[in-house]
Amino acid sequence: MHYLVFSVFCSVLVSVLLKLAPRQRLDMPQVVTWNYLVASVLSAVLLQPSLASLQAPHAPWAALLCLAVVLPAIFLMMARAVTRAGIVRSDVAQRLSLLLSLLAAFLVFGETANGWKLAGLGLGLLAILGISVRPRAGAAEPTGGRAWPWLLAVWVGYALVDILLKKVALSGTPSMAALLASFSLAFVLMLALQLWRHLRGIARLQWRNGVGGALLGLLNFGNILFYVRAHQHLPDSPAVVFAGMNIGVVVLGALVGMLGFGERTSVWNRVGLALAVVAIGLIAWGTW
């Protein structure tokens, strides 16, 4: 169970780093770029996935390339959501992306629906409405502007990642090999973008962003590694790991956001938070 706790902590610390990045004058596109270099190296060295499946004729390169584009894009959207809406609401939106993933499983991948999953889906949709309501004092949105478009982008974006990973899994490609390929491609694409920004004078390459990216990469990879290890140590309880991870991130993210950063939440936000926990529990129970 300690692996699950470590995974939850890494996930919430990613949000904390995204929250603190503007205060440290970090350029998020550069931070995200170096994050994928570190995550790629750690994946190759520590996980050592077999890449033979990527050489097969049926290798899902189209889906992997889409992941290479979506993964850094959703990181940047999450960074903006954390800045505009706060950690509390952003983490809930991220975890409730499983609702769209579940809907895709029913409609696209032919998964069987049951009462528990449908109840969780319905409560989850209500939770999304609750967390989208802006707190009256607006303290969670220090930069001004609307938060809900970024929360919506996080919700849809993480669901898209889950759907793409599902397509890769159905092709027979091992998940760790797929992640290594996606991370590596994401780094190459983002590095090309940063070199273009540097040459055009839009954003000069700076060491501080490399340090921030290394830390983000460590947390990003740690989240994945410990989640995989949790499943390996609890092979007969995948629903427990699934629910523990998602509920843990929602609850810890709420505590960190409200107690650590003084983020204000409205009554509707708190109702949405509670509904999110119940919805995740129902979906996990229906998956058991």
TrEMBL record:
Pfam families under this entry? EamA
Q: Which ranges carry the EamA domain?
A: 3-132
Under the heading InterPro entries, the entry gives: EamA_dom, EmrE-like
Report the domain of life of the source organism.
Bacteria
Keyword Transmembrane helix tagged: yes
On whether Transmembrane helix is a keyword of this UniProt record, the answer is yes
* The entry's keywords: Membrane, Transmembrane, Transmembrane helix
List residues traversing the bilayer: 6-22, 34-52, 58-80, 92-110, 116-135, 147-165, 177-196, 208-228, 240-260, 267-286
According to UniProt, the name of this protein is: EamA family transporter
